[in-house]
C-alpha cells in the first residue's frame, strides 16, 4: 500500500508541476521553463518517493519494468491504478487553481494545436521518445549503474524530451499524465487521448525489450 500511495502522490505532483507550469506560468517561462518543470518534478519525486516505489509515476515505465522482468504483472496493474488516479487528482487540483478545465496542459496534435503536426508525426514521436525514456530509466537503475544518480539522469532526459517535442504533441510519454487533463478538459483532448495511451505503452514495451533480451545488459 505504501508503494501505491507513493505512486499516487508522485503522479499527482508531476501533473501539478508540469502541466501547472504550462497553464499557470507558460507565458512567463516559455517552453524551456515548462520542460524543466516536468524534469525537475521527476527529480524531486525520484529522491522523494523513489526509495518506496521506485518512482515510476508513469504506466509506460511500469510496463517497461514489468517487461524487463523487474516486477510482477499484478503489481504493475496496481501501479497503473494509482498512477491514473493520481494524475486525475493532480489535474483536478490544477483546475481549481486555474478556475477552469478548458486548459489543463492536455496533449494533442493537428490543426489548432501548437505546431499543428499531423497524426503520424505525433505517433512516431510518442513511441520513439517513450522508448528512449524507458531505456534511460532501466539503464540508470540497473545494478551496475552508478548509485544515486538515476533521478538526475531521468529528470534531465525528460527535460530534453520536452525541449524536442512540446510543439509536436505537448509531450506525453506517459498515459497517466495525458489522462488526467484530457478527462477533465473533455472534447477534442478526450477524443485524441487514445494516442497518448497506446503510443507511450508501445514505446515502453519497445524500450524494455532491449533489456528483456539482454541487448543492453552489462
From TrEMBL:
GO cellular component, one term: plasma membrane
UniProt keyword terms in alphabetical order: Cell membrane, Membrane, Transmembrane, Transmembrane helix, Transport
Superkingdom field: Bacteria
Keyword Membrane among record annotations: yes
Pfam families: MIP
InterPro entries given in the database record: Aquaporin-like (IPR023271), Aquaporin_transptr (IPR034294), MIP (IPR000425), MIP_CS (IPR022357)
Regions that span the bilayer: 35-68, 80-105, 117-138, 150-173, 193-213
Membrane-topology descriptor: Multi-pass membrane protein
Principal subcellular localisation of the protein: membrane
Keyword Transcription regulation belongs to the record: no
Listed Gene3D superfamilies: Glycerol uptake facilitator protein
Coiled coil: none
GO terms for MF: water channel activity
Compartments where found: Cell membrane
Family indicated by similarity: Belongs to the MIP/aquaporin (TC 1.A.8) family.
Name of the protein: Aquaporin Z 2
Organism this protein belongs to: Martelella mediterranea DSM 17316
Amino acid at each position: 500500500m505504501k508503494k501505491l500511495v507513493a505512486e499516487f502522490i508522485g503522479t499527482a505532483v508531476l501533473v501539478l508541476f508540469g502541466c501547472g507550469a504550462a497553464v499557470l506560468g507558460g507565458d512567463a517561462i516559455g517552453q524551456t521553463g515548462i520542460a524543466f518543470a516536468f524534469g525537475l518534478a521527476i527529480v524531486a519525486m525520484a529522491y522523494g518517493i523513489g526509495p518506496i516505489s521506485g518512482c515510476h509515476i508513469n504506466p509506460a515505465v511500469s510496463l517497461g519494468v514489468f517487461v524487463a522482468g523487474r516486477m510482477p504483472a499484478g503489481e504493475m496493474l496496481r501501479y497503473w491504478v494509482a498512477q491514473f488516479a493520481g494524475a486525475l487528482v493532480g489535474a483536478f487540483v490544477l483546475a481549481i487553481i486555474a478556475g477552469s478545465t478548458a486548459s489543463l496542459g492536455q496533449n494533442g496534435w493537428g490543426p489548432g494545436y501548437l505546431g499543428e503536426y499531423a497524426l503520424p508525426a505525433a505517433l512516431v514521436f510518442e513511441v520513439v521518445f517513450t522508448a528512449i525514456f524507458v531505456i534511460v530509466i532501466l539503464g540508470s537503475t540497473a545494478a551496475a549503474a552508478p548509485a544515486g544518480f538515476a533521478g538526475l539522469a531521468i529528470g534531465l532526459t525528460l527535460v530534453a524530451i520536452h525541449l524536442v517535442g512540446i510543439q509536436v504533441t505537448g509531450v506525453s510519454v506517459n498515459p497517466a499524465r495525458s489522462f488526467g487533463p484530457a478527462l477533465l478538459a473533455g472534447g477534442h483532448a478526450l477524443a485524441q487521448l487514445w494516442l497518448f495511451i497506446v503510443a507511450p505503452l508501445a514505446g515502453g514495451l519497445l524500450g524494455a525489450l532491449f533489456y528483456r533480451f539482454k541487448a543492453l545488459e552489462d
